[in-house]
Amino acid sequence: MTEPRRDLNHLYLEGPGQATRYEVQGNVPAHITPRDDRAAHAAALAGQLALAKQALSGLPRDPVFPEGPQGQYLDFELTGRDADKALLQRLEGRQQGIEVASVRRDPATNRVIATVVVPETAAEAYDRRIHEYASVDTPGGQPKRASLVTNIEGIRHAALRSIFVGDAASLPGPGAAVWWEV
Question: pTM of this prediction?
Answer without folding.
Answer: 0.72
